[in-house]
TrEMBL record:
Subcellular location: Cell membrane
Domain of life: Bacteria
Annotated organism of origin: Streptomyces scopuliridis RB72
Protein name per Swiss-Prot or TrEMBL: EamA domain-containing protein
Cross-referenced PANTHER family: ACYL-MALONYL CONDENSING ENZYME-RELATED, SOLUTE CARRIER FAMILY 35 MEMBER G2-RELATED
Family according to the record: Belongs to the EamA transporter family.
One cellular component term from this protein's GO annotations in UniProt: plasma membrane
The UniProt record lists the keyword Cell membrane: yes
Membrane topology per record: Multi-pass membrane protein
Keywords, in A-Z order: Cell membrane, Membrane, Transmembrane, Transmembrane helix, Transport
Ranges of residues in domain EamA: 16-151
Keyword Cell membrane: yes
Amino acid sequence: MKADGDQRAGLLDQRAGLLYGIGAYGMWGLVPLYWPLLEPAGAMEILAHRMVWSLAFVAIGLLVLRRRRWIPELIRQPRKLGLIAVAAVTISLNWGFYIWAVNTGHVVEASLGYFINPLVTIAMGVLLLKERLRPAQWTAVFIALAAVLVLAIGYGQPPWISLVLAFSFATYGLVKKKINIGGLESLAAETAVLFLPALGYLVWLGASGSATFGSEGTGQMALLAATGVVTALPLICFGAAAIRVPLSTLGLLQYLAPVFQFVLGITYFHEAMPPERWAGFSLVWLALVILTWDALRNARRTRSEALRLTAEAAEAAATTTASGSGSGLAQAEAPLPVTEPAPSRPREPDPR
């Protein structure tokens, strides 16, 4: 009964993790609907507000959760502080380009950046970390390169927005892997690095009369302030999902965000999709199908190998135990050796 209860609790926990994951990637996929609501604010002003309000929101969350011990530990590690500064710059570049792309009618091209991000991450692993790829991964990378070439011909130039978004986010992921701190803590540290420059920029905008915060009504003020929630809430859901569902499931869920963005770009923002773009996107999707199939097959093979090794170890342990028990039983049942009593020594005469 206890085992059944534990299994049921595990299934419920995994189902909750799946919902958290869908919520996280769903929010990231639907965020293109939010940025146009902040106009007439420009991309730089929106980015600055996002930095300031994200830090405020995350700081409150960390205070409520009483998670402050990581701050002095981080301060004592200069190398990690440097990596956080690099992460802050790369994610601000990613955020800024993404906001600008959405508000200038490039939602489809932005979605392409997140479609090819896993492929760029693999390529960076080969170039920077000297990782070895399986044949299917090489195939996916070459198909992705062909897709970029097709799209470059279609656009008349390389898809710069997609490439900037993909490479900046892949670099961010690479740096984050080396930082290795919690999601909320990392976001707090990264936004803290750029808090003063962002706040200074907003003050300068206000002093020059160019700021939209406060001049477009309370509704727009509230929307700009809510950029902190829009940034942190998906991250919280992602963190809750990451500890409940397998990594392979998260790997599949990550495609929800660019799929939503792509669909929004065509159906809601009515962006053009000429045949050459369809051809380029189709090649990217083919590369992702190959990559996903290879990842799932490798995960299944690794799991089977782990189960086989576990079973062999258990069988070997059982055999050893049985052998030891049999030996002990044989020793217990063996007749004890009969020994002759030692001859008694004659008593010496009493000296008295």
